[in-house]
Amino acid sequence: MKEKFLIQGGARLEGEVTVSGGKNAAVAILPAALLADSPSVIENVPDINDVRVIIDMLEYLGAKVTFAENVMTIDPRGVDKYDPPYELASRMRASYYFAPVLLGIFKRCEVPLPGGCDLGARPIDQTIKGMEALGARVDTKGGVLVAGAEELTGGDIFLEMPSVGATVNSMLTAVSASGSTTIHNAAKEPHIVDLANFLSSMGAWVKGAGTDVIRIRGGRHLHGANYTVVPDQIETGTLMIAAAATGGDVLITGAIPTHMEALSVKLLEMGVHVTSEDDWIHVRSNGNFRAVNVKTQVYPGFPTDLQQPLSALLTVAKGTSIVTETIFESRFRFLEELRKMGADPRVIETTAIINGVDQLVGARVHATDLRAGAALVIAALMAEGTTEISGVGYILRGYECFDEKLRRLGAHIERVTSEE
Ligand code: EPU
Question: Quick check: 286 and 247 in contact, CB under 8 A?
Answer without folding.
Answer: yes
